Amino acid sequence: MILPIVAYGATVLRKVCKPIEANYEGLGKLIEDMWETMYESNGVGLAAPQINRDIRLFVMDSAQIFANSEPEDEAYSDAPGIKRAFINPQIIETGGKEWIYNEGCLSIPKIREDVSRPESVTLAYLDEQFKEHTETFHGITARIIMHEYDHIEGKLFIDYIKPLKKKLLQGKLNDISKGKMRVDYKMTLGK
Ligand code: ZN
Is residue 116 included in any domain, yes or no? Predict the structure, then answer.
């Protein structure tokens, strides 16, 4: 089932999300719906608050990026990418040289900005069977993970933009929060 994506301005996007238990009702179906919703909207990642749940869960698929690009620089060191669901993730550490990438977000349509992030991230998380993992990710995969992880901490990529630039974006952001935008996927304004 395709779920509507919560637009910028909703309070759920600013919440520090809560961990979930293995018996969380309908978790399997929820993750399945998140995959479907992410692919339908051409996203490479989707976090639970973006579908109006304040829980520590996100899905991502960096393999989609490699399917359409030549692995040429350090940003693509993680080829061929991964597809994975992360439950109750915690960042253990970040590392490597910071690099800039032009990011976007399904909750903030039609806005893209350069964001600087570390090259790698080490994460402790549970898989769909609630098995524990600690793993280090690099390149684009690490970037998507850090973007989605920010979501479950109530943070958005535009928070990294310099104040002057953010001021210039304010009109567009206000429009999004009022539903005044055209997107080819289903969105909801939330509260
Ligand atoms: Zn996002």
Answer: yes
